[in-house]
Amino acid sequence: MSAPARTVAPIEREEVAASRRPWSKGRIATHIFLGGMAVLWLFPLLYAVLASLRSYAYTSEHGYLSFGGFTLENYSKAWEAGDFGAKFLNSAIITIPAVVLSLFFASMVAFVISRFSWKFNTIMLALFLAGNLLPPQALLIPVFKLFQRVEVPFWISESGTLLNTHLAVILVNVAFQTGFCTFVLSNYMKALPKEIYESAMVDGTSLWGQFWRITLPLCRPSLAALATLEATWIYNEFFWATVLLQNGDKFPITSSLTNLAGDFFTDNNLVAAGSMIIALPTLVIYFALQKHFVSGLTMGETKG
Amino acid sequence: MSAVAEPRQRGRGGGRLSTRDKVTVSLMMGIPTLVAASLVWLPAIASVVLSFFDWDGFGPLSEAEPVGLRWYEEAVTIYPAFWPAVQHNLIWLAAMFFVATPIGLLCAVLIDREASGTKLYQTSLYLPVVLSMALIGFVWQLMFSRDQGLINAVLGTSIDWYGDSRYNLWAALIATSWRHVGYVMLLYLAGLKGVDPALKEAAGIDGASEIKTFFHVTFPVMFPINVVVLVITFIDSLRAFDLVWVINRGRNGLELLATEVTRNIVGEAQRIGFGSALATIMLGMSSVFILIYLRIVMREEAR
Description:
heterodimer, A: MetI-like fold, 15 helices, globular, B: MetI-like fold, MetI-like_sf (chain B), ABC_transporter_permease (chain B), membrane (chain B), Carbohydrate ABC transporter membrane protein 1 (CUT1 family) (chain B), transport (chain B)
């Protein structure tokens, strides 16, 4: 797939040509349709922002079609009720090592696959990529039992097994995400001219040196794109964290929103505020690094 | 390392590896492979094997009793949630395939044609893609909730959209589509940028209408992306989980294969063999699409 070269400079290309075209009926209709879609798509999120800024007392008395009762209280209440400080820390403990390890592992595999033309390379790549697409629930039982049986020192886990540890969630995320990253990075590395290694080989630079000092620095753009994307995905990961961490204190922020929704009574304004707090990091990443995010997503033309 | 035979390949650096480099290569391949093997590939095989055994989950594996196809038989005959789960997964798939994906494609085509001034449309459409499915479940709760939801407030109804089994699957599908449309649009937008404009121009000179050009020229040229989108749609429909788990843990009208597998290992009772049989059914279905996907992607790769 020639994707990296094609999509690293996205979206802006044809703008000049289009702006010169006259406004036909078709174009107006197109803009009306797209504008309508945009409003429709933005609405749930904007409504959530609005709801998060209103007090429950006001909306329960006047209904949600009223206007007023604005307050910031939901945010501080949600932060405390959800114990979000600790949960954000958990998210960081899981996400940062998982992203770094996924990218590190993937770039090593991609380097070997792109540097040498061994017959098993394609098979390895296919296996890694296939792993990324498997339904995680279908692997749950063996993975769960495996973590339950692996004994680890008590400084890692108070129960003595990997189940219910952040390490388990990190490992399983790495195992799943390495496939996608390997695929994207190997495409990128294959596009690098092989001449760049020649002088290094004459100098007798070791293979590791070539990887670390030549290949990796050249891959910086795709590593940045992948890091943006993977950080979002792993931060958003819900399934593994929910089933492998049975102890609510260890939940990352994405799995802990359920704490705000009670069994018998739910304050939706509070839930809205909690949702906004949880969405904030991904929204910031998205708006600040949109180009990376989009190019990362389209480089592999996949995810799952 | 004997696989490096042709002289053409030796030029890429193979064949002349020092001992140290050989160790480096083995570790560079070996460690990631070990992690992926022990947490993805072997568990996949283990799910299949366990589905033919009766194992309590705690004793030694050697005490597990082979039971043949018993769990599969139980699933299709007496397990009450099995057929509803299959049916819901199929409805899910149909909704994504026939509704959400075409909407995403349509938006991509229109945005690609207009090109200028579409930044805002793009941004709003793929904003939900950065949110987690769990979070999307909560954002839509503000619409769907019985007592505090916007929809009931506007319509004057008092329907529990997330709780009532007549409606909750459709509510979940609307929330999922919110994300899927943006995702599909993004993939097609990248795909459309790769289509040679000369092709379209040539068709235009021949007098083909824009719609005709799209279906006869642009769409076929995007074949690999069509397959990728198709496979992603299928696989994501099969592994749908987060959204219904936050709504009601996949009960009462929201049973899905993924939630049923999960219920058999975390929750009231651990039914290892039975859960593995459900997992194997999921694996079987997904592997068909994964194989199609790999064929297309690897063929592209070989070019």
